[in-house]
């Protein structure tokens, strides 16, 4: 019985370490970024589908709008849950850099969506999945290096 309690205690400690509080552990940050990215992806993907299929918008316009909604979700997760350090004291400066990274991500999204859908003739929802993986790598790396690391620590 004591071993069971120790195992439960260990599991509880690990769960709390992974899910609660600030952490500087890069692997936990990546895990949290992927979780937040999953939530943002659901918002992004559902919005893309709804605006394209039900709203009648062109998939590239729908993709831009849906990406921006996902960006807002990711920003909220980033400042409150994922990263433990914020390198900018001025919050407006932080958001401008975050938005600039997001705009590069949006440009990459549009480029990849066009390439995969219009040139490679993939369905736009399949293109979105591939695009999301590629843009997520860009977004995490840029945000970690430019916004959420100690100055001078790269």
Short description:
The chain is an all-alpha fold and 154 residues long.
Task: Compile the SSE list and pairings.
Elements: H1 2-19, H2 26-54, H3 59-82, H4 91-119, H5 124-146
Key attributes of the depicted protein:
154 residues, 5 helices, globular, mainly alpha
Helix content: over 70%
The succession of helices and strands, N to C, reads: HHHHH
Separate helix tally: 5
Query: Roughly what fraction of the amino acids lie in strands?
Result: under 5%
Task: Indicate the structural class.
Answer: mainly alpha
On the 0-100 scale, what is the average pLDDT?
Answer: 84
Principal-axis shape: globular
Q: Provide the domain count.
A: 1
Number of strands: 0
Low-confidence stretches: none
The largest sheet, given as strand count, sense and whether it forms a barrel, is: none
Please tell me how large the radius of gyration is: 18 Å
* Terminal Cα span: 46 Å
What does this structure look like?
With 154 residues, the chain is mainly alpha-helical. The chain has one domain. The protein has helices at residues 2-19, 26-54, 59-82, 91-119, 124-146. Helix 2 packs antiparallel against helix 3 (59-82), helix 2 (26-54) runs antiparallel to helix 5 (124-146) and helix 3 runs antiparallel to helix 4 (91-119). The protein is globular. The termini are far apart.
């Amino acid at each position: 019985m004591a071993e069971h309690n120790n195992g439960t205690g260990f599991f509880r400690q690990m769960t709390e370490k992974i899910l609660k509080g600030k952490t500087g552990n890069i692997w936990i940050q990546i895990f949290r970024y992927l979780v937040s990215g999953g939530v943002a992806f659901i918002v992004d993907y559902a919005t893309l589908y709804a605006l394209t299929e039900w709203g009648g918008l062109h998939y590239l316009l729908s993709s831009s709008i849906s990406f921006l909604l996902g960006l807002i979700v990711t920003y909220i997760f980033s400042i409150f849950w994922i990263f433990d350090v914020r390198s900018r004291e001025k919050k407006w400066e932080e958001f401008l850099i975050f938005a600039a990274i997001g705009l590069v991500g949006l440009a990459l999204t549009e480029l990849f969506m066009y390439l995969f859908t219009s040139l490679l003739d993939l369905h736009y929802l399949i293109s979105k999945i591939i695009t999301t993986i590629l843009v997520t790598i860009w977004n995490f790396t840029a945000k970690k290096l430019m916004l959420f690391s100690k100055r001078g620590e790269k």
